[in-house]
Specification:
Length: 228
């Protein structure tokens, strides 16, 4: 499907053209800007944003969103004040899985590529979303034709892309998300709540539902442990 004009993207998302342009410039929608200044938006990023209903309501800050997912994954984020931690824990108590997935959606930006070797690229990323689906739902099979993950250690996105001969491609099969260093991303897979939240980005109903179910299960375990 061809890329869309901003007026068509705005109609699909139920927002103004200016908001679409702002989302493109912030990297929250994927697209390209032509030499005359006109923006084109990829249908894929519109579908992903619609699946999260990310335009509804006010989002949470990136730091708070990562800390909340860390809490649900059993990790303690560093450098949080007591008031911030209390606010995060209150959000877990009063929010549904759907609300959590929607509110944390803007915490990270996905960069899309085509890979020279999808297997090698997969092996050097900390996997998430569709590439780690069976971590949160054993009935799901990890997608081998796509790669979703986070960078390891302190490598930059540009350096990783050069090493792996990645070509920017808004419709590519490799998605690398920006990460937050307050959480542990050193293993093969991302923290469980991060995987679930990223799986909710899928436009496939089965995968999105599995992500939401996993988030709610983690939330219930957290409530059982932290509610007196």
């Amino acid at each position: 499907m061809d890329n869309l004009m901003t007026k068509d993207a705005a109609r699909a998302l139920g927002v103004s053209q200016r908001q679409v342009t702002d989302l493109l410039r912030a990297g929250k929608l994927s697209g390209e800007q032509l030499s005359d200044g006109t923006w084109l938006v990829t249908p894929r990023s519109i579908s992903e944003r619609r699946s999260l209903n990310a335009g509804a309501g006010r989002t949470w800050s990136a730091a708070s969103s990562w800390a909340l997912l860390g809490e649900l994954s059993g990790q303690s984020s560093t450098g949080l004040s007591q008031s911030t931690l209390a606010r995060i824990r209150r959000r877990i108590r009063i929010s549904t899985a759907e609300e959590i997935a929607r509110k944390v959606a803007s915490r990270t930006v996905g960069h899309h590529y085509t890979a020279d070797s999808i297997v090698k690229t997969d092996n050097e990323l900390v996997l998430t979303g569709r590439s780690a689906a069976d971590v949160i739902d054993t009935e799901l099979t990890n997608q081998t034709q796509v790669v979703e993950g986070y960078l390891r250690n302190n490598e930059t996105l540009d350096s990783f892309a050069r090493r792996h001969l990645l070509s920017p491609d808004n419709n590519g099969d490799v998605t690398i998300y920006e990460r937050h260093d307050s959480l542990n991303f050193e293993g093969r897979y991302s923290p469980a709540a991060v995987i679930a939240a990223d799986l909710v980005r899928s436009t496939l109903t089965r995968e999105r539902s599995a992500g939401l179910a996993a988030l709610e299960e983690m939330r219930q375990r957290w409530l059982a442990k932290n509610t007196r």
